[in-house]
Amino acid sequence: MSANYEDRDTLFNFVVKEGNGVKGLIDSGISCVPQPFVQPLSERIATPNGQTCEAVQPIDISQLDGPCHTEVAKQIVEAAETLGFFQVVNHGVSVELLELLKMSAHEFFEQPPENKAVYLKEVSPSKLVKYGTSFVPEKEKAIEWKDYVSMLYTNDDEALQHWPLQCREVALDFLKSSMAMVKRIVEVLVEDVGVILEEERMNSLMGTKMVNMNYYPTCPSPELTIGVGRHSDMGMLTVLLQDGIGGLYVKVDNGDWLEIPPLNGALVINVGDTLQILSNGKYKSAEHRVRTTNIGSRVSVPIFTAPNPSEKIGPLPEVVERDGVARYKEVLFQDYMNNFFSQPHDGKKSLDFARAD
């Protein structure tokens, strides 16, 4: 007798607790989306209508080191102030490495489920690696249609020892070849608010680094599900590699959702909550979400940069002096992080934790 995946407990045990993931559900032969994955009408993403946003025009990040520095810095600042998302090219990460990343992500998730389940949080041999499904599935009204593996960076040796064999080398290369670009972008953004961060402070604000690989299996009814719900990222900056399928949407001021289209060889950059707090609201952590698809399994590879857990974050004093008001209070990043991971995705609600009373 086949399992009843319409029953939430049965599905939760199979997908989440046993580590079969959404991929295992699809491999079991289902032809319909089980009820626990069906989103409320308010959260569903309409069929793509071709609307894309201005982030389609990539920024040539290499021009920061030439005569066009001022113009390129202005493009970065404007994107961070308005959309919170932009795409970059000539970023220092080779196209060959980007292709290897996508291939290694597929290789990891296409393994037998028991090979991935060894990295479930409760049993993972390393605190650096976690495999799972959705965000906080035990608290969500409807589960997100996504499997993932997250790899926390401490140092090269531990990454090469503990990260999954299928992706450890390419993921580490991706992280290391992206960090100079990330620091350069942060420098541009803080300089525009009249601040020069000392190297020690900069390193503390980006002391937590994590590479994730996300896998969105082919979905029989994409209009009923979401890959990732509405949220903003908690850290400083996120660097994202998309594959060619697409499905990343960002919310704009008028409430519309526009797609960030995949561009071959480009990387997506988005502002996180920490940078919004430091800038006293000048820069916008972008609310975004991910659509599922029935044309193939999609992968994406983000790098999350965030403060050390022991770091206190609040509006930079120079910015408060200029603005005349602090819109956020100072909080310990560990506390902000604990709050972020304790609740299902709900837009930018996580920022309320740091809002000034």
Structure in words:
This protein has 357 residues and is of the alpha+beta class. Helices cover 31% and strands 18% of the residues. The protein has eleven helices and 14 strands. The chain has helices at 8-17, 21-27, 69-82, 95-109, 113-117, 156-162, 168-192, 199-205, 273-278, 317-323, 333-340, and strands at 59-60, 85-89, 129-133, 147-153, 208-216, 228-231, 237-242, 248-251, 257-259, 267-271, 288-290, 298-306, 312-313, 331-332. An eight-stranded mixed β-sheet has the order 1-2-10-7-12-5-4-3. Helix 3 (69-82) crosses helix 7 and helix 4 crosses helix 7. The radius of gyration is 20 Å and the shape is globular. The termini are far apart. The model has no long low-confidence stretch (mean pLDDT 94).
Primary descriptors:
357 residues, alpha+beta, 8-stranded mixed β-sheet, globular, 4-stranded antiparallel β-sheet, 14 strands
Task: Report a brief summary of the structure.
With 357 residues, the chain is of the alpha+beta class. The chain has 11 helices and 14 strands.
Give the arrangement of secondary structure elements.
Layout: H1 8-17, H2 21-27, E1 59-60, H3 69-82, E2 85-89, H4 95-109, H5 113-117, E3 129-133, E4 147-153, H6 156-162, H7 168-192, H8 199-205, E5 208-216, E6 228-231, E7 237-242, E8 248-251, E9 257-259, E10 267-271, H9 273-278, E11 288-290, E12 298-306, E13 312-313, H10 317-323, E14 331-332, H11 333-340
Parallel strand pairs: 1-2
Antiparallel strand pairs: 2-10, 3-4, 4-5, 5-12, 6-11, 7-10, 7-12, 8-9, 8-11, 13-14
